[in-house]
Amino acid sequence: MAGEADWGRLLDDWGGYWSIREVLFKLHASSFCTQALIEGVIALRSKHALSTANVLAIRAQVSRMSMENARVIEPVSGMEGKFSLPHAAAQALCYGRATESDFTDARVAEPALRELRARTAIRLGPTLGWAQAQVSIETVDGRTFTDEVDLHQRTSAASEKWRVVRTKFDRIARPVLGAPAADRLADGVERLDGAADLREVLGLL
After folding, report:
1. Mind listing the pLDDT tens digit for each residue in 66-75?
2. Residues 87/72, Cβ–Cβ less than 8 Å
3. Superfamily per CATH, domain 32-151
4. How far apart are CA 5 and CA 35, in angstroms?
């Protein structure tokens, strides 16, 4: 097995860069071009106890890629909701999440979400990259709260990427496998760097 010095030489030969290190993992069950927006709305919702009752409007700027990819303005199905920036913002504010079970035909038709989408304006931020968003939420009492999201910065460390993946894995796998089995599998994967072989993980599968 190659040691650290061997990996160092390999990286030098390839210019010192592996694109896999830049991979980001989706936190939410919608287009990646909605992720930064959702994160910004959820953060403001949590920090300032915001709800549909006390929010007047949501304003946001996103990247050109986000505008072009998640371009559905008024979704009529759960699938369209995954590619709708206004719906992503409304879903995040109303429910504080955007999981697999949230993107249904019934959900996008909910009156509260439809009404909030009408009070949401998304526009192009010319300097923003695809993993960035600027979010501003105005309340009925005249306050304005803002957040700037850069998913590259928020999840640059390997430990933070693992936290994102583990949180999503737990949400999806525990109802299917049961919490004990899902935890054993995730823990086994986390220990792979020090494992002699794959037998532990393969046995759990």
Report:
1. 999 999 999 9
2. yes
3. 2-methylcitrate dehydratase PrpD (3.30.1330.120)
4. 37
- Cα distance between residue 190 and residue 194, in whole Å: 9
Hey, what are 195's tokens?
A: 């494992």
- The answer to whether residues 128 and 134 touch, using CB atoms and an 8 Å cutoff, is yes
pLDDT-derived band at 107, boundaries 50, 70, 90: very high
Distance CA 130, CA 62 (A): 7
- Where, residue-wise, is CATH 3.30.1330.120 in the chain? 32-151
